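PROTEIN DESIGN WORKSHEET
SECTION A - STRUCTURE
LENGTH: 110
TOKENS:
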């Protein structure tokens, strides 16, 4: 939220606030770092209390977050200007892609 003042529970453009693409900080590695943090912290909380059954709600939550990032990406590719270019430059929606790993397998050596 520090890096992205437009982070909101509602998928919307905040034109009155000058909504634009945030591409630095954690957004240079993944397009949705806030959701990635939630996907880590919610199951970690369940494990911290020592209950495997407590992992069921976070698993459901994870599916909701995966769908939300997909819908949010579809919405943002229409506006704001530059998001589609940003999405091509930062292909990872939730899990950072190691550039060395990606370049090695994109261009394998003989």
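SECTION B - SEQUENCE
RESIDUE ASSIGNMENT:
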């Amino acid at each position: 939220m520090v890096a992205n003042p437009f982070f909101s529970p509602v998928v919307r453009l905040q034109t009155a606030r000058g909504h634009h693409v945030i591409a630095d900080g954690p957004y240079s590695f993944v397009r949705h770092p806030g959701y990635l943090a939630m996907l880590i912290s919610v199951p970690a909380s369940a494990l911290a209390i020592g209950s495997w059954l407590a992992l069921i709600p976070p698993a459901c939550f994870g599916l909701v977050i995966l769908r939300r990032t997909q819908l949010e990406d579809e919405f943002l590719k229409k506006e704001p200007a530059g998001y589609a270019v940003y999405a091509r430059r930062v292909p990872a929606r939730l899990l950072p892609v190691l550039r060395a790993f990606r370049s090695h397998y994109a261009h394998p050596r003989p």
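SECTION C - NOTES
Helices lie at 33-48, 56-78, 83-89, 99-106.
The mean pLDDT is 80.
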